[in-house]
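Good day; I would like, with your permission, to put a structural problem before you. What I wish to show you is a protein chain and, alongside it, a tokenised description of its three-dimensional fold. Thank you for your consideration; the sequence and its tokens are set out here:
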Amino acid sequence: MNRSSLGVLVAVVTAACGCVSVPIAPASQLIDRGAAGARLAVDGHGRALVTYRARGRARAVLARGAINARAPSERSPQVEFALRYAAPVGRGGCRRYDGPALPWLVAACTAPDGSYWALQSWSRIVPVGSSLTAGARELRLSHWRGELPALTVGIGWVAGRYHRLVGRLTYAGLPVHGFRSTHAGSPLDGYGRNIYVDTLDSAYGSGWRRENGFLTHAPSGGFCYGFFPHGARPSGMGVAYRATVIGPGVTPDVSWEQRAPGRTRAGTAGAAGCPR
């Protein structure tokens, strides 16, 4: 990569957007929804340029100022990018990505300092029971060095007939959780994370369908979810399950996927108790 090319590009984009930083909630950071043709360019100074098309226009976002994630804290805010939006005016570079495999990957680069940048795109907000195409795909940017967040999940049984997921989200060996949320389970700080669960070939229909979304709990970063019926809604038990979570700080989004143990309990092991 020609470092100077992105350096010039950075200066032009900054001037074009009037040096106004657009605040976005910290996470593997949301860049836009409904983006197409996304490309990623990075330099050796902790800067990345994302170019794409959305709502009929070419767009560009310059990101800088964050890497990895802080451990949950009620005193310090979580890390987040400073973002500047402008029209694209050029092209930088992207060294071959040699990092770990990522779900929902659009583009990834290895920066000159050995850190990684990645763009991922997936449907986070989807009505329960709906195909994932029912939600707008979000384009999300991450920047990290070292290990990924760890989403560990086990499948067992509850009430003798329903599948249950028991799991935990950690980063750098520490639990990932927030401190404040709404009654509906939406995080009100930069640390809270929702687990989004999909079910395959269930009573909702064929293919992957959204089952639910729920918070990890303090202090363990754990969660426990049973596939119970809810009123007129049937049990979402399927032949396989998938869970996806936004990475803490600006680390990548990670996912877990596994075949279900079957529709009857005989011959299967139960999951451990719900973590607290």
Q: What stands out?
A: The chain has a mean pLDDT of 88. The radius of gyration is 20 Å. The helical segments are 3-16. Residues 127 and 210 are 7 Å apart (CA to CA).
